[in-house]
TrEMBL record:
One of its GO terms (molecular function) is glycosyltransferase activity. CDD domains: GT_2_like_a (cd02522). Keywords: Cell membrane, Glycosyltransferase, Membrane, Transferase. It comes from the Bacteria. It is found in: Cell membrane. The keyword Ribosomal protein does not apply. It comes from Marinobacter gudaonensis. NCBIfam families: glyco_like_mftF (TIGR04283). GO terms for cellular component: plasma membrane. PANTHER family: GLYCOSYLTRANSFERASE (PTHR43646), GLYCOSYLTRANSFERASE 2-LIKE DOMAIN-CONTAINING PROTEIN (PTHR43646:SF2). This is Transferase 2, rSAM/selenodomain-associated.
Amino acid sequence: MSEAFSLSVIVPVWMEAASVVDTLEALAPVRARGHEVIVVDAGSCDGTAERARPLCDRLLQSDKGRAVQMNAGAAVARGDLLLFLHADTRLPPSALEQLTAFFESRRAWGRFDVRLSGTRPLFRVIAWFMNQRSRLTGICTGDQALFVRRDVFEALAGFAALQLMEDVEFSRRLCLVSRPFCIREPVVTDSRRWQKHGAWRTIFLMWRLRWRYWRGESPESLAQVYRSDVRHAPE
């Protein structure tokens, strides 16, 4: 079965040797239907690139930073649709069918609902609030596997080269073109970040960063806050 569109899945990675194989193997059905997977590595020294190479259609090296990496992947992508997937996130089995419905719509871009992989009831609550917030505001985060028509991405000049909040900033510009196409079948993102640093601590950190961003603080200073908090989080 083939779709009426071509899809490029762009996966930015850095030091993901432990999970990159599982991530890319999960995309094998997408490749089997004629679509491409592009991995953009930011100079990993743990074997990420070597493990990724046989499991993708193209492996690029770029400077570090998700925005820079995703733009680099988009620059060589051939697809009508561009989908940006975090290295710890899995698409649902029905992703291509859902994207077909999007392609046939008039929307310019969209995102998936998200579910955290952990079994704690709190993770379900967190995901519910993430999805509801996104549905109300039109803003999505990278965990929700943002997708966009190629011509729209190029017209907006892609992601701004920010150290943090590049997904939020791009969503805001995309909302000027259309509301997002929201796919309820969720992507599943690894809950290791929440488990390692503590669910409530992570919630507080992310909401604090977003609040300060909306208040006008620069993404560069927020990135410093984020890195400092993660470094001092309890193991």
